[in-house]
Design brief:
The model is unreliable at about 125-135 (pLDDT under 50). It is elongated, with a radius of gyration of 19 Å. By secondary structure, it is mainly beta. The two termini are about 20 Å apart. The relative contact order is 0.14. Strands 1, 2, 3, 4, 5, 6, 7 and 8 form an eight-stranded antiparallel beta sheet that branches. The protein has one helix and eight strands, in the order E-E-E-E-E-E-E-H-E.
Length: about 140
């Protein structure tokens, strides 16, 4: 469920900014079916109006607020690349929304490295920066 508002729009420059909040429901009973968590995702979009559509890249931070027992917390950065194309008849539309998921997992990685004795157990992990990788979905 997504709630969006457009706090800024400039028709002359053919651009706008949108911001909102998305609610992700816990509908997964198994790991293969989803995260097993209630999550919130604040988001912001830059919208560029084109002659036959619009392009709206967006950035979202998705974080769990309640996880099922034994499930890992959700902490993701999502990059949306929304593109809407309007046909010449102005009655047909094509919409695509490829998404890049960037998972931040430094504390889990450090914990695994401590468990495997790769790094000392007295290491202060609060000084670590953010470690991330990308996955196209």
């Amino acid at each position: 469920m997504r709630f969006l508002t457009v706090p800024y729009m400039n028709i002359e420059k053919k651009m706008a900014f949108a911001t909102g909040l998305e609610l992700f429901l816990d509908t997964a009973s198994e790991d293969a079916l989803g995260s097993g968590a209630w999550s919130l995702g604040p988001q912001v979009f830059f919208v560029k109006f084109l002659s036959r559509g619009l392009f709206a890249p967006g950035l979202q931070w998705k974080v769990s607020v309640d996880e099922d027992s034994g499930r890992a917390p959700v902490n993701q950065i999502l990059i949306d690349l929304n593109y809407l194309f309007m046909a010449k008849d102005k009655l047909s539309w094509f919409f695509t929304d490829p998404q890049v998921k960037v998972f931040t997992y430094v504390h889990r990685l450090v914990s695994e490295m401590i468990d495997q004795q790769i790094i000392p157990s007295k290491l202060d992990t609060s000084s670590f920066g953010s470690l991330a990788f990308c996955k196209i979905s």
